[in-house]
Amino acid sequence: MNKPLDIAQRLEALDIGQSFIVQAPAGSGKTSLLTQRFLRLLATVKNPEEILAITFTNKAAAEMHQRIIESLKLAQHPRPADDFNGQTWDIATQVLQHDAESEWHLLQNPNRLRVQTIDSLCASLTRQLPVTARFGSTPAVLPDATPLYLEAARNCLEELDDQGDVAEAIKRLLSQVDNQISRAESLLSAMLASRDQWLRHIINEQTDNRYVLEDVLQRSIESVLMLVSSAIDESQKKQLNDLLNYASGYIADTNSSICQHGQEVDLNDTGASSVDAWRMLVNFLLTSDGSWRKQANAAMGFPAPSGTKDKLEKTLFDEKKKQYRALLDELTENEPLLDALGWIRCLPSAHYSEQQWQFIQALYVVLPRAVGHLRLVFQQRGEVDFCEVSLSASHALHDVSGVTDVGLKLDYQLQHILLDEFQDTSETQFMLMKDLVAGWQPDDGRTLFLVGDPMQSIYRFRQAEVGLFLKTQQEGLGEVRNIKPLTISVNFRSQAGVVDWVNRVFERVMPEQDNLYSGAISYKSSQSFKDDLLAEQSVCYYAHEDRQAEGQLLCELIQRIKKERPDESIGVLVRGRKSLADLVVALNDAGVAYQATDIDPLNKRQTVIDLMSLTRAYLQAADRVAWLSILRAPWCGLSLSDMHALLEDCPEANVWDLLQQEARLLALSEAGQLSLRRLINALTVAFNHRERLSVAEIIAGLWSELLGPECLSSVAELNDAQRYFECLKELDGAGQSLDLKVLNERVEKLYAAADVSAPDGLQIMTIHKAKGLEFDHVILPGLDRKSANDDKRLLAWLERPSEMEGESELLIAPLKESGGDANEPISQYLNKIEQQKSLHESQRLLYVAATRAKKQLHLSFCLKIDEKTEEIKTPSSNTLLGMLWPYIQQDVSFNKGDSLDKKDSITNCNISRLNIEKIEKPDIKSLDFKQLGTEKFRQQTNLVEFDWATDTAAAIGTVCHQMMQILGEKGASETNDKALSSSEKFIPHLLLEAGVLPRVIDDSIQRVKQILTNCLQDKRGQWVLNKGHEASEFEFALSGVIDNEIIHCRLDRTFVTEGQRWIIDYKTSRHDDDNKEQFLQTEVSRYKAQLEQYAQLMGAIDPRPIMLGLYYPAFGGWRSWEFKRAEK
After folding, report:
1. CA 248, CA 257: separation in Å to the nearest integer?
2. Per-residue pLDDT averaged across 364-376, rounded?
3. Of 390, 420, 393, which is closest to residue 404 (Cα–Cα)?
């Protein structure tokens, strides 16, 4: 096999005595490089835990961990013939030899390999030092904490009525938003969501120094002026000075900037104080729309030759105009200069006005206060966001007094850190990395290995800052200065035709030079490792007249590929989900199955539409549309004739009131009466418990009682319902009455899970979701669609890497006051930076999409024809197509034809209706309550069983576990009945919280009491709950890796006694038959694998013998056995 052209760089990257930052473009095998580096280190370290590999996703962490294990297993077989696997085999063989000498037994204890995500690292740090990290105990992490941000913002703004500095500052902020409290709440909430970017600057006592912030403004101005000055050569500067000096003497307007600055302008002066002279130069060269001027006129100081009779003047006027035009012709060729001059017009002032400064001072008071309110909300809820975990992790490593004990411990343990996808690092994560390497010394043997591709940095919405990659290449990271930059270039993924096209196009699409401030990343070309094996064109263009035509043609393209190459994969990738609307319709009409990841809006799925209607009808009796919707839903399925009979002569009446009229019910068909009486009974129960239960509990129970789950036809629909209930429960538990508007907004942001039952040969997803994936064929539809615009923020700000070594800086501009200047210079400058950053990220997004293709890339878009010229209109620059168009337009053919026949579709009025008679209710009395609780929806033949009774069983099991923990931790195992009587007050509350309905609450309480009484009276139960055991833990969380899979579990009970570690699982099942021995033996067979998995995880951290037990408190059942460890 041929060796890659960059083999020298790849071998150098395996030098474990040197730190590297490696730029690895798409398809270059960076995971393999990381794996080999990890193996090299394993062959030399004293303990595997000295190496830490960090990734950004669970998928990447699992893949890397698996690669390491597979490499070690490879070394147990003969050496492979190919160079790469042979090289891996050589390194892995050394690792296994070192493993045997050190008695690590990595293949039996793979969890000793530390490969984790950045989020899990942060979480583990906070767990090691929860008090210092501001958590009293490990909180739950919310993927979307918007309700908590809003609550904190609301609480903060309520201080408006108090006295003092905070109230005055809030008044000042409200004046900027026209005293609109709701807008202030939402904007303040948005600031809290991204507090990791500004908090360290706001709370820094030096940051509110006006000089510090204005110094950033001045350096921003000077950096732009230096860029412009360096783009003009000395000869051109001399010509400009001569022309400006001439124009200033002939211009009629004495207030003109040319008159004021033309004679004294110094084009080598790039100080902030010279910005007005540079603005004058911009107006001298460019029109108001930013294009080069065509000629000079009298208003610019160039009188027309025809305006004088003096021959010398006439000659002078004509000559100067010619000189100006000649200079413009020369400068027009200088594209970087035009871009740089455009920046001058939006440069901010070097100083804040007094009004602006007062606003910023108010922010310094309000924002930290809002953060304080947010942390109170976090504590009250026992929930946090990812941002808080990251901030707390940094706090766990380093606080105001210096390095913490956790930081010192890590500094002692860690010798080598590998970080994947470094281009997606945020400022907060970068600071965490600096804390991790704090104290590292040159030549102490410790190394950093940073791998990434700045050309694939596409996560600015997650605060990724690509400039940090550039900064680290130049300066190193923290105290690790000697980091050598490396670039690998061979693409192992794509055919040569795709790689050649990407090289040809993107070296022109992407900027010529890197830029730390604007996030500009220049293109680095790749070489294909594969020969072009395809006879077809590698990159194809599809131009369409309208969206419907595009959807239909792409559907036909997909069908053709699937027919001709059934074993090859297809990925349809989009920037925004709107680009898929017509294609999805065409695929569905054609019956083409696909897997869609976060593509289908949840609020468009019929299951969720029905549940939303049920929720609205329950909350708003007058919502006629919602009531009519639930009458037509499958669980009721009222026919149109019955609907007409029910609503006849009452077009405005309340539907619930009509359902109470017996005469109207009797006028319906027999099937209609049966359906409605079921519905009425269920709703009556729900309404009766309105004050006792949450809305989420009521709707879940109501849907169950109406047999809603039985109406579903797939697991995907079941998952849709589950996601809706999770959203409903989250909002319902926010401490406020459920707001339907907020519910609608939240559901609109959710997307249906992928249908895993569909074949994976065709996958549809966003480009962001496709990062790290590859497909034989990649289709990019809707390239002509524009990107969305962001809303204005309360505080226009930007954190970016500073030119000062190792530092970052903050630029601040307040939101304009109502009625104020929309072109406020600081905001205008920050907006232009954001536009530039967005443009550059869009370029990188297109690069990521194109480089997913292994064999063929298909580009699809709609074009418009200019009716006057009959030429193709140039696509908007704010589109992916607009970036490509100058370089592909010659290859695109577009024949305007007739539009597809757009016939109006007729909705099928047949509706699905549940056949109640075929539902069979299972006997649930012998089911294990806890086990049932982990799987709320259970399959019943081809139906789905979802019943209040089974929910009650699950709730009883959950509450028994909670109460056994309460009793055990109180030391209640020795006080029996007295202990239970003092704690039984919790039982009703816990049952209601778990979703038990009032109609069965009394029976449920008695059932829980009976189980707990049996446990406390049983000697075995007393022994199990005794908190006096060594290393006693209840509900102990445990994680690790088994068979290359990351496993998370929670042990009901664990402790150490007589030198043995016990792991015990409670089972609240009851057994009414006499043959308990056979029942217990069956249960051991059922749960043995699960408990031994727990033991395998525990064995990685506890060398003592492990005993496993199953305990059934309902009847004193017990089984135990010893866990046999794998032989070393």
Report:
1. 9
2. 92
3. 393
Q: Cα separation of 1063 and 339, whole Å?
A: 68
User: Does the pTM of the predicted model rise above 0.85?
Assistant: no
Contacts (Cβ under 8 Å, ≥6 apart) of 972:
966, 979, 980, 983, 1016, 1025
639 DSSP 8-state letter: -
| DSSP string across 783-851 | TTPBPPPPPP-SEEEEEEE-SSTT-EEEEEEEPPPTTS-TT-HHHHHHHHHHHHHHHHHHHHHHHHHHT
For the segment 880-890, what is each residue's pLDDT rounded down to a tens digit? 999 999 999 99
Distance, CA of 735 to CA of 377 (rounded, Å): 11
Nearest C-alpha neighbor of 370 from the set 731, 794, 811: 794
CA atoms within 13 A on the CB side of 673: 10
> Checking DSSP bridges between strand 795-801 and strand 595-596, what pairing results, if any?
unpaired
Helix (H) or strand (E) holding 662: helix 662-666
Burial of 283 (0-12, 13-18, 19+ CB in 10 A): middle
Confidence at residue 773, expressed as pLDDT on a 0 to 100 scale:
92
Residue matched to tokens 């009486």: 677
Cβ contacts of 219-222, under 8 Å, gap ≥ 24:
219/803, 220/347, 220/348, 220/517, 220/811, 220/829, 221/272, 221/275, 221/347, 221/348, 221/350, 222/270, 222/271, 222/272
In Å, what is the CA distance from 445 to each residue of 16, 50, 480, 537, 894?
A: 9, 12, 12, 51, 62
**If you average pLDDT over every residue of the chain, what do you get?**
84
Rg of the chain on CA atoms, in Å: 35
Torsion sign over Cα 321, 324, 327, 332: negative
Residue 1118 pLDDT: 93
Instruction: Show the tokens assigned to 71.
Output: 């490499």
For the segment 544-583, what is each residue's pLDDT rounded down to a tens digit?
Answer: 988 999 999 999 999 999 999 999 999 999 998 888 888 9
β-strands 1060-1066, 1045-1057: how paired?
antiparallel
Structure tokens at 490: 């061979």
Cβ atoms of 841 and 423 closer than 8 Å: no
DSSP 110: G
Residue 132's identity, in one-letter code, is T
SS (H, E, C) 1058-1096: CCEEEEEEECCCCCCCCCHHHHHHHHHHHHHHHHHHHHH
Return the structure tokens found at 97: 């030899």
Beta-bridged to residue 1041, according to DSSP, are 1046
β 853-862/775-780 pair status: parallel
Place of tokens 């205008």: 828
At 935, the amino acid letter reads E
pLDDT in tens, 666-703: 989 988 898 899 899 889 988 888 777 888 888 988 88
Task: Give the sign of the dihedral formed by CA 257, CA 263, CA 268, CA 274.
Answer: negative
- Contacts of the segment 211-215: beta carbons below 8 A, 24+ positions apart: 213/352, 213/360, 213/810, 213/812, 214/350, 214/351, 214/352
Asked if 1100 and 1055 touch (Cβ cutoff 8 Å), the reply is no
